[in-house]
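Reviewer 2 asked us to include a model.

Predict the structure of this chain.
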Amino acid sequence: MELSNAQRAEVLIHALPYIQKYYDKIIVVKYGGNAMINEELKEAVMGDIVLLSLIGIKVVLVHGGGPEISDMLKKIGKESKFVDGLRVTDEEGMDIVQMVLAGKINKNLVNLLQSKGGHAVGLCGVDGHMIEAKQLKPELGFVGEVTNVNTQPILDVLEKGYIPVIATVGCDDNGHTYNINADTAAASIAGKLKAESLISMTDIAGILRDKDDPSTLISRINVSDAPQLVREGIISGGMIPKVECCIESIRQGVKKVFIIDGRVPHSILIETLTDEGIGTMLV
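Predicted model (structure tokens):
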């Protein structure tokens, strides 16, 4: 659809109050799922992040990379095992996780942001001991639970005008590295930064009253209502840990959390710069 110049101006004027609201504030975007695999969507997401950065919003991009890790493990003949949705990670598996997350995926995203006119720096949780972690459960191997987030490296990068792109690998004082679930890491980082908002990109429209009917999207949920929605089975399966992470980040001081559909082009902009929004907001 071609917009006339007048319509373009109208769009910008409508976005102005939102730009003012978020100007110089920190937004954490958790990026994963389909939006990460589909090249066209990936381009759109990176373009959105550069745009937000250029209008004075401090964007912190936190990414996972499950499918690519699974592909690489398959190539070396290792099978991926999951317990409660978390990847069982032995020592060799951890090497692959670090290589794929902090290497290939992280640098590709940095490169893409640069090609869209942004300035980005790739980091992982080991840099500056940013994400401190301990073993979550012995049966999961090198899967970590976040014990502390040192935000200084992130703030330093933001202050210099760069977009920090963070791979979710953590470390402990003994030099062990851990695979950290991206939702957990993003929630902890957003909480510690007291971010204005956390935007979690998923492969569904948001939280639906009826999982098979997108028109039953619940656009706003109060944190205190979440346990009841779990009891009713409206929040279920893989959405439970995701929502728990979102609630934890609100408890830590994040003002709003959005669960949005990463399969919709420009969903970040629709959520951030319009009245309607697109997903489920937790407050």
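The first helix runs from residue 5 to 22. The two ends are 35 Å apart (CA to CA). We have added this to the supplementary material.
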